[in-house]
Amino acid sequence: MGSHFIKRIIAVGINSKIFHLSLFVLYVFCGSGFAQMAKPDLPDLNVLYISRTPRYPGYVLKYQPLPGSGKEWLPCVADPETGEALPLTGMEKGADGKYVRKGTGIVEAIGADKIKRWPDEGEEVTFTAMVANHGTKPTGEFEYTWYIDEIPVERGKHESLNGPSLVTDEYEEVDIGGEKFKLSKRIEGTYCTLEYKWKWQKGRHYVRLDLDGNDKIDEICEVNNDVSDATDACSFVIMVDALTYNTLAEGENHWKSFNFDDIIKYHRQQMHRKFKASISEFAPYGILEEIRYDVILIQATGEARDRIAGVKLKAGWDSHWDFSTYIKPDTKPEEKYWYLKSQDWGLPHELGHQLGLIDYYCLDTEGGDGGNLVEDENGDPILLSHFTGMVGMMRGHGDIQFSAISAAALNYQMGRRRGYFGDYLWSVPDRNVIRILDFEGKPVADASIRIFQHEGRYVQPEVVFAGKTDKNGEYELKNRECLPFKTDQGFIIKPNPWGQINVVGTNGVFFIETKARGFTDYVWLEITAMNTEFLKGNTKQARYDLKTMIPPVTATKPLDVRQELMEDGSTKLAWNPISQGETYTVFQRLNAPPRWEPVKDAVNIKETSFHIAHLQGNGRYIVLANAGGKISAPSKEQRVVRLANPMGITINEKGQRIIIDSGVPMPVMFRKDNSTIGIFGTFHMGLGGVGDVAQTKEGNLIVLTNNRAPIRLFDSKAHFLPRANVGEFGSGDMQFKDATGI
């Protein structure tokens, strides 16, 4: 059938509590896969949201560099009205406007605790519900009931509402937080507001408005007839433009209703479901925090997106999300259908940021192995990256729970207004010790330690700690200086192993080189390990066990493993046996989390070789022998990179070969003896594909590809020079198209 074929199906008499359908039309567009039902000719009462007034400001912050804070700008509490930072303890401003340190105590905002952020006990507040008819028929007179903690506190009736409740092209200018917004007007007679006044009580209580509780009205949808909010929930202001709002009322959504409001309420429901399911030893009842939509503002089509972000805290909301421009005049039908029916897991992720949770991919090494700038004892780049093994909504997003550290951080901040971001990363125990364990999980005494740190998600070459483990395999990470600083009703940063901690997490990873018993291994420690210990109560001291492939003291000598190139370009690892009856296990270094793991089909094998098939691909391998229960030390690490179609080569002053291969996403570096050093660059650079490599007289590397990436420059140690990109895609001066040689 052609793409314009339309099939019409009529069905009559389908009824249910949630959805009543007397007639529907199903349109099938075979070319696009888009399908949509026609709207039933019925009313649809809907509680859109419940506002609470008066509103009080969240944390308006001004990030500032302070003496002793190094590169990090610190979140200073500002006056909500002026936006100017409050005075700080132990700091004075000079005539030039810069701060001067006076004293040695913890720096915090003076007067932050005087800013009212919640109603007082017994203060009268007003809950105002926006009610609309999103159906096509008038509702007739309807009943409503207000509940506090599921106890009915007020009942009433309201006159009929027409429908559908859409917005018009008319708007009114409204001042919000000192900014003017053009808010669209609803069609008169399709909506109303209902109020309930309550004497504020601290702690968690629930306010709920229920419409047509006796189901007297035959409606499209019943799920949207009530809204229940925790009174201490984080309040969101939702912004959307008129085009998006009206367009998403044309199709059936998750609740089988026809309006924008239910789409976002459905996602709030899903977020709360994930909160409750995020159970761990630190959150035995899941995440206790909740969110509520305090208001949905519909701005005129064409207005800029995210303007509300700059005034939300001042205006009294904790967080926001702006759906403006989600629908555009040229949006395709299948894209509209996606918004109507798909589960957008990106939304709970983004709302998590609004609550102050970081992206945990900020604990990953930027781009890959090339983000590690550390060299080994021979001066070769180690080229080993870190990808966190954390699984959760803020690591990526999808149908998954929030991680244990996210749950602990949110539960720790219950009742705190929002505005701060990531300051829970400052929660580090006073004393921190790592313990190095060998392959069998036993402590390694007298291991040599070198520790390096992420900075901007790159592992920097400077050593931040060095020494040896004690007889118990332990090594204390001494506290480093930082500016002691306290966030209001939050966290304190004080001297700690990381120094001045970045609240986004970009300096929150240690790369740890361990040498003992003739073997060198590399392990990682994330700041979240320390945060977790602190938030579960270990605020004074904590120990972190780091398992390595360092051999046990009883290990026999290692195998001498070599690489052999196969005719198809793949690699075979081969070795000579040490004793009769041995079996062998091949390990591969994996990531997310970084670890050594036995290769499938290579555990206790009897053969003295192992073919690394294409499925295993590029990687790092070691081999262990087992002779009657006696384990050998690990073999020397074998770095394998399979070349498919080399396109360019250069040789540096050390005799190292740098090769561009169309089958490898980044340049490959080999030693003079042809052993592999590794892949460098990052996958964000777009270095794959046909290209070439050359070298300047200074020894810098010029890498060229034909995939629209600019020319990239690296120094002689394969470290990316971030401000040394050349050219762009195009046909003008210093523009390139399908460049293949240099």
Describe this structure in words.
This protein is mainly beta and 742 residues long. It folds into five domains: 45-55 and 119-354, Sandwich (Immunoglobulin-like), CATH 2.60.40.10; 61-114, no CATH class; 360-547, Immunoglobulin-like (Sandwich), CATH 2.60.40.1120; 561-640, Immunoglobulins (Immunoglobulin-like), CATH 2.60.40.10; 646-736, Thrombin, subunit H. Helix 6 crosses helix 7 (527-535). The longest helix has 18 residues, at 260-277. The radius of gyration is 31 Å and the shape is globular. It starts with 9 loop residues before the first strand and ends in a 6-residue tail after the last strand. Mean pLDDT is 90; it is low at 1-35.
Main features:
five-stranded antiparallel beta sheet; Immunoglobulin-like; 742 residues; 46 strands; 9% helix; mainly beta; disordered N terminus
| Fraction of residues in helix | under 10%
Number of spatially distinct domains: 5
Shape estimate: globular
Q: What is the number of E strands?
A: 46
Short description:
The protein is mostly beta strands.
Q: Topology of this protein?
A:
Layout: E1 10-11, E2 24-29, E3 34-37, E4 45-53, E5 61-65, E6 73-77, E7 91-93, E8 99-101, E9 124-133, E10 142-148, E11 151-158, E12 167-176, E13 179-186, E14 191-199, E15 206-211, E16 226-230, E17 234-241, H1 242-247, H2 260-277, E18 291-299, H3 312-315, E19 319-322, H4 333-341, H5 346-354, H6 404-412, E20 431-437, E21 448-455, E22 458-459, E23 465-468, E24 474-477, E25 485-486, E26 492-493, E27 509-516, E28 519-526, H7 527-535, E29 541-547, E30 561-565, E31 571-575, E32 583-590, E33 595-598, E34 609-612, E35 619-627, E36 630-631, E37 638-640, E38 646-651, E39 657-661, E40 668-670, E41 676-679, E42 691-695, E43 701-705, E44 712-714, E45 728-729, E46 735-736
Parallel strand pairs: 17-18, 17-19, 20-29, 45-46
Antiparallel strand pairs: 1-2, 2-3, 4-9, 5-6, 7-8, 9-14, 10-11, 10-15, 12-13, 15-16, 20-24, 21-22, 21-23, 21-27, 25-26, 27-28, 30-31, 31-34, 32-33, 32-35, 35-36, 35-37, 38-39, 39-40, 40-41, 42-43, 43-44
Helix pairs in contact: 6-7
